[in-house]
Amino acid sequence: MKRAVFPGSFDPLTLGHCDIIDRSINLFDEIIVAIGINSSKKSMFSLKERKKFISTHYINESKIKVMEYEGLTVDFCKKVNADFILRGLRNPADFEFEKAIAQTNHKLTEIDTVFFLTTAKNSYISSSIVREVIVNNGDYTKLVPACVRKDYF
Ligand code: ADP
After folding, report:
1. pTM, whole model, 2 decimals?
2. Which domain holds residue 106?
3. Residue range 52-62, pLDDT digits in tens
4. Pocket of ligand 1 (CB under 6 A)
């Protein structure tokens, strides 16, 4: 079984994340969207809310699972028997950052990272921009899937 882990904070799920998941889904038998728990990072949405956004959006997609993890992503991959890490690239800064992490992960475990370039129309979207728009009462609805607004706003 070809299983990939798509790790991230997903605070909250955005159309940018969905872009990567939707376009890579045919490559894998299963994608585990894995919410990394980082106790030193304060999130806007609780773990429960973040999980619910993802599971609600992909309720009819049996290949998508949602899990949480602590510690190294590669250790989580081993635990769930995933051979691939999935990541999205928006810009050169993402590339530089992701390159070192992917090379380290491969050195540690031989797990490969598969990158998808975002489609141009979603390349500016990030969870942090969405949070900024929400905090300032802006119209965030064009940046996130419907479930993010329906349940919580
Ligand atoms: P992290 O804190 O690990 O970056 P995020 O939830 O912000 O967590 O992102 C998870 C993954 O989704 C990363 O690979 C990131 O590059 C990707 N991603 C986020 N927004 C977009 C976007 N607009 N287009 C493509 N990939 C994206």
Report:
1. 0.94
2. 3-152
3. 999 999 999 99
4. 8-10, 14, 16-17, 19-20, 87-88, 90, 94, 118, 122-123, 125-127
